[in-house]
Amino acid sequence: MYIDFLTIISLIISYFTIYSIVYFLYIYFKHKDREHSLFHPGVSIIIPVLNEEGNLHKAIGSILSQEYSGDIEVIAIDDGSTDKSRAILSDYERKGIIKFIRKNKPGHPSGKISSINLGLTKAKHEIIGVLDADSYLNNDAIKNMVGEFENKKVGAVVPITKVHKPRNFLEKLQVIEYTMSMCVRKLVSNTGSLFMTHGVGTLFRKKALKEVGCFEENTLTEDLNIGLKLAKKSYLIKSSFKAIGYTVVPNKTKHVLKQRLRWTGGLFENSYWFKDLFFNKKYGNMGLFVLPLNLAWSGISVYIAVMWLKDFIKNLYYDLKDIIITNFDWGYFLNNKLESLMKINVNELTIISLISLIMFLSFYFLISKKVKLTFKEALTSYLLLPFYFTLFLGLNAIAIILTPIYLKQKGGRPWLTDKTT
Question: Can you state the angle between helices 393-409 and 253-273, rounded to 10 degrees?
Fold first, then answer.
């Protein structure tokens, strides 16, 4: 019996969908998020800033309004802003609310990552948070994360991330992506295999950061790099569903593409730098399974996108041919099209795919409630799922294909070359 490669890929995806959902539920109910404790260490939050006058009040305000018994220090580092960011931060400084560092002269930025590293040298507390200036936290986020640091093996804790007020089509597609990615992170976190941090309020252990050499400045994705550094030193990275961060996402296609080029470029360069972690049993599930699968998905997504495009062009060609042959008899064409759509070839693959689809839709509903999506957001996500798995993943595939060219042109300190990403 002949089975084409795309069918094999479909079976693999269906299998992993079913397996991951069942395994996630098992792990989730077995490992609950740590409850509040009497452990209230001081926390220093570093906010790197470059031309963020419209977002600063929201970011800083979310830290100042935290429901947390321990001391919270806010350190804002301006990297040469030319808008009103410095004036806003100076006002907070005069009131004694934050520590304000003027890193560079206006118009002369030297990079976000160096700003974070500078903040580390000025922070007085052992727990360090990094919050992008276009992001903010729920008022109980820090309280819900610090308890994990009672375990000395924990090097970082990441909150779940939600899209801030999604309005247009692209932003709403990213709601789906962020919801699913947080689910995956929670799964691998509970198996001790999480290697990714992010800038939307992740907390770090200062001792661990110093041990691994702080943040790498010459990388496209410092959050991935520091996560891999910590994992290599056997530190755990935990994820909390009880802590929520919000971030502004790109709302134009060109900005999404630039962001994905940077993300994929960072994945490729860091996979090369940390290649000794791959298939290394010393690093358990992360080395043997999670890291290789994460990288392999790039190739699989490109293959699926190319095959989908190939089938689309092929079907379009035959549809146009049929229309011309029937002398543009649209009634006959639509009738034939509906008949073909109604003919479902029921076989083992169809049944497995249907089971995985039903499980995925049910699971997405549960997760959307867990990450506190509104009813409107959850309903919109359901309606946009077909577009996400075609158009949006196709855009990601384009970014992957273009990444080698991008890596030749750019590298390190991303906001020096493209503030939109």
Answer: 60
pTM given for the model: 0.85
Encode pLDDT of 60-84 as tens digits. Answer: 999 999 999 999 999 999 999 999 9
Per-residue b or e along 292-320, where b marks 16 or more CB atoms closer than 10 Å to that residue's CB: eebeeebeebbebbeebeeeeeeeeeeee
- Do the domain assignments include residue 257? no
| Residue pLDDT, tens place only, 166-215 | 999 999 999 999 988 888 888 788 888 999 999 999 999 999 999 999 99
Cα–Cα distance measured from residue 249 to residue 259, given in angstroms and rounded to the nearest whole number: 10
Token digits for 35?
């409850």
> How many domains does the chain fold into?
1
* Sheet strand arrangement including 200-205: 99-102, 72-78, 43-49, 127-131, 200-205, 154-163, 236-247, 135-137
Task: Write the CATH number for 223.
Answer: 3.90.550.10
Task: List, in sequence order, every residue forming a beta bridge with 228; answer none if it has no partner.
Answer: none
Output the DSSP codes for 128-180. Answer: EEEE-TTEEE-TTHHHHHGGGGGSTTEEEEEEEEEESS--SHHHHHHHHHHHH
- Expressed as residue numbers, the domain containing 151 is 33-251
Q: Quote the CA–CA distance of 37 and 16 in Å, as a whole number.
A: 36
**SS3 of 238-252:** EEEEEEEEEECCCCC
DSSP state letter for 388: I
Q: Kindly list the distances between the CA atom of residue 25 and the CA atoms of 184, 208, 240, 296, in Å, as whole numbers in the listed order.
A: 12, 31, 15, 24
Evaluate whether residue 282 is within a structural domain: no
The residues near 365 (Cβ < 8 Å, ≥ 6 apart) are 378, 382
Contacts of 356 (CB under 8 A, 6+ apart): 13, 14, 15, 17, 18
- In whole angstroms, what is the distance from residue 351 CA to residue 362 CA? 17
Eight-state DSSP code of residue 392: I
